[in-house]
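[job 4417] fold queue: 2 targets
>>> target A
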Amino acid sequence: MTYIISLGGSLIVPNENIDWQYLKKFRALILTQVKKGNKFIIITGGGSTCRKYNAAAIKITEITDRDLDWIGIGASRLNANLIKGIFSKFSSSGIIKDPTEEINKQKSVLVAGGWKPGWSTDYVAVILAKEHKIKTVINLSNIDYAYDKDPKKYKDAKKIEETNWKDFRKIVGDKWIPGLNKPFDPIASKLAEKLKLKVIIANGKKLNNLENCLNNKEFQGTIIK
C-alpha cells in the first residue's frame, strides 16, 4: 500500500533548530512500515523557516505574494532535501518538484517539496493523490485535531473528530495567502472535496498514534471526507 504523508514544517524545524531526534524516530517508524511492503510519498512544509524568511522580506521592502510564495517553496524544498537525505537508501536521487511528472514507483520513500506560487504543500499532496489514485492523505502537524475556530484565540473552540468537506471548507475559507496557517489549506480542500479524498489531520509528534493510523487501528485525529 502507498501512503501520502504531508509532514508539517513545524515538526521538522519547530523553532530555531531542526528536531533531529524526532526525525530519527519518524524515520524508524516509516522504515518499519517499508519492511512490511508499504510505500510512502512524503511532502514537506516550510514551517517556521518559511514564516521567518517571509517576515524578514516584508520588513525590508514591499514584496508580492508571488515572491513570498517562492520563498516558502524554497523553505519547503530545503526541508524536503533533508527528509530525502535521511531516506537516501530507499529514495530516488532527487526530490519531487512537479507532482504531475512521472515518478519512480519502485522506490519505497519518495519526497516532495513545494511546486508553484499560489498553492501550499497541502495542495501538492492532493495533486499527488490524484495522479497516483491514492484516496487518503495523512496530514501531520503539531495539533491533535482541527477545530471549528482557532483554539488559541477562543476558549470555546470545539475539536472536530469527523466532518465533511462542505462543513470543513466553511472553517478554512476559500482564499490562499502566503504563510497561511490552517489545518488544511483552502485551495487543497476545494480540490480534495472534488476528488472525494479522505484527509486525516493528526499530531505528527505522537508517533505511536501515527503507527496506529497506518495499521488501521483506533487513532486520535480529525477525519475529513
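>>> target B
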Amino acid sequence: METIDPQTTLGALVNAHPELAREFERRGFDYCCGGRHSLSDACVDKGLDPAVVVSELTAAATTSEAVGWSTMGPTALVDHLESTHHRYLWDELPRMTELLAKIVSVHGVRHPELQAIATCFAEMRADLEPHMTKEERVLFPMIRELDAASSPPPFPCGPLRNPISVMLLEHDRVGELLAELRRLTDDYQPPSDGCPSYVTCFAALADLEDDTHLHIHKENNLLFPLVERMEREMCGTTQ
C-alpha cells in the first residue's frame, strides 16, 4: 500500500484502516476525542519521530479499502452503535462493578489503590449509562428521523449540533476517566500477588478501554460530522 501521509488525521486513518486503532493505543495516540489531530502532531506530542512511526504504521496497515462501519449511513451506524458498543457496555459495566468489589474485598488491604480504581470506575459508569440512555431515547431517534426526511424536521432542541455538542463534552469526560483508570492500574498490569479474578478484572478494564475508544471514535469522527453535514445541506447552509 501507499505510505501513510503524516498530515492525515488520526480519525481518518482509523476509518480507512481500523487495525491501526490498536497501534494508536500502544503509542498513546488519542484517536477518538482527539481524532481531528494529525498523525504528525500526535507524534510530536508524544516525542516520537514521525518518519519512524509512519514507516511502522504503513507496515501495520493491512486493509486497502474502507470496511463495515466506516461506510455506513446514519441510520445503519446508530443501529450498529446500539447493537455493538452500547450492548457491550450495558452488559459489561455491571459485571465489572461486581468484579471490582470482589477484588477490593479480598485484596484491598494489601493494595489500597484498588479503592481508587473502583471509585474511578463507578464515576465512569455513572456518566456512561445516562449518556447512552440519552443517545438511545433522544439523539439516535432524531438522527433516524433526519435520515428518513426530505427536509429538516423541527426538533425541539433546534439543530442536532446542539445535543451533539453535549455528547462531545461527555465523551471528553469519559476519555479523562479512562486515562485515569490506566494510570491507577499501571497500564492494567496486575500485581504479582494478584489472584485470577484480579488478572481477569484488569484484562477486562483494558478491553473496555479499547472498545470505548473505538465507540467514541465512531460517534465523534463519523456519525456526528455526517449528521451535521446532512442537516446543513438540507437547510441550504454552510455553517
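[job 4417] complete. Note on B: The mean pLDDT is 92.
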